[in-house]
Amino acid sequence: MQYDQLIQPDNGQPAIPIQLIHKAGFETWLAAQPDTVRAAVRAQKFEAAVNDTAVLMVEKYGEWSVVAGVADEANLGIWSLAKLAETLPEGNYRLLDADAGDAMLGWMLGQYRYQEYLSDPKVTGPRVLLVKEPGRIAGAALQAMATALVRDMVNCPAGDMGPNALENETKRIGKVHKAEVSITGGEALETGYPLIHAVGKAAMREHAPRLIELNWGDDRHPRVAIVGKGITFDSGGLDIKSASGMRIMKKDMGGAAHALALAELIMAAHLPVRLHMLIAAAENSISGNALRPGDVIKSRKGITVEIDNTDAEGRLVLADAMTKAVEDKAVLIIDFATLTGAARTALGPDLPAMFSNQDDVAEGLLGAAKAVNDPLWRMPLWAAYSEMLDSDIADTANSGGSFAGAVTAALFLQKFVPDDVQWVHLDTYAWRPTSKPGRPKGGEALGLRAVFRYLTDTYPVR
To answer: Domain Cytosol aminopeptidase: where (predicted)?
Structure first.
């Protein structure tokens, strides 16, 4: 979808008017309307609640207008117009007495559909919003496209979104933005990135594991690494998941989808950074050579890891990828991962758990998240819990047990990042279990816009 075509400058072209009304002002507005409008409003049971809508016919035959309930007609939130964009018929629209502002993004995403596997997809024409802020259209469209990329990749069935598909998508984006893409697989992966290889070796024949890297930008700029967990399907390995736990594990590459979308945002915005994106891609499968509980693997960094649970595989592949980012002198490493059920139990599906080894970075991210209404919640790197990762025979275990699972997963990753390197870990769900206006059930970008805003604030384009 061409999201930039869904918002266009208002040059006075014909359009259906939309009147936004806050519930507190509804009765005053209604009292000023003619009898025909009051009757139509009552017939449609419109009371100006958020997302309420009513269609009003005007005196001239065939013309009509829309009234819609919003939380604040003077300061629209991102999702204020999303329901309208989902439900209105094809055509041009303009707001009366209001600027779209942040709601441009919601208008665009309200028209997102994932219909790749429908034999008879629902085809609707575009709902175009005319605005008097044309300078904001490109930025909103860029973020809509990035969000749609995450959704599309996560929604795609695992049989069609394996490591090879992640590689192809990286190459596509790299070609568009003239970035360098390199792939490490086979024997080079086994010797150079043993944790990634160990996790993915059970699916070697059909879905071989690999490290996917994209480099872009000027070497004189600060080196920023974006790392994504790319487990394209997670059976749990020999510590196999239940059927219900495995059902949506096509989404376990959601971290990789976020990393790719963020990389494209950075390149499209021409941020003054030396971007290094790394995706650790593998399928956590089961076969005769699968990783076993009790195995000990020596990581790329040299830290030996005892496998306490084969379903704690995401942190393993991230560890080797993060080690490479450190070797290449990143000053900031941000990893995205659908890492733990513990984070979802603590914070639910909408709120990514954020960990950082630098307080100023964490505070900057929280501020950016609030500014763009893409919430994050900081969780502690509680050092005392490191003992939960102790192993009798190796430098560390990969799982700390059932207590504080999101914290111990982050503490495991911290072992692979020096204290003087800024590091952020986002444990995100990448999935929406129920639908909301502009946010359908399925794959979702959570934390993407917050991180991009932080990066644009930290590395502004001059």
So the answer is: 309-316
Q: Which residues are catalytic?
A: 241, 315
Distances (CA, A) of 252 to 67, 72, 317, 369: 41, 37, 12, 23
Q: What CATH number corresponds to the domain at position 29?
A: 3.40.220.10
Tokens at 235, concatenated: 């059976």
The residues, any chain, with a CB within 8 Å of residue 191's CB and separated by 6 or more, are none
**What local confidence, expressed as pLDDT, does residue 60 receive?**
62
Residue 147 sits in the same domain as residue 46: no
Please tell me the pTM assigned to this model. 0.97
Interval 235-245 mean pLDDT: 97
Q: Say whether both 153 and 105 belong to one domain.
A: no
Tell me how far apart the alpha carbons of residues 337 and 138 are, in angstroms, rounded to a whole number: 28
Gap between the Cα atoms of 274 and 260, Å rounded: 15
Task: Place 73 in a pLDDT band, splitting at 50, 70 and 90.
Answer: confident
Residues forming beta bridges with residue 356, ordered by sequence position: 424
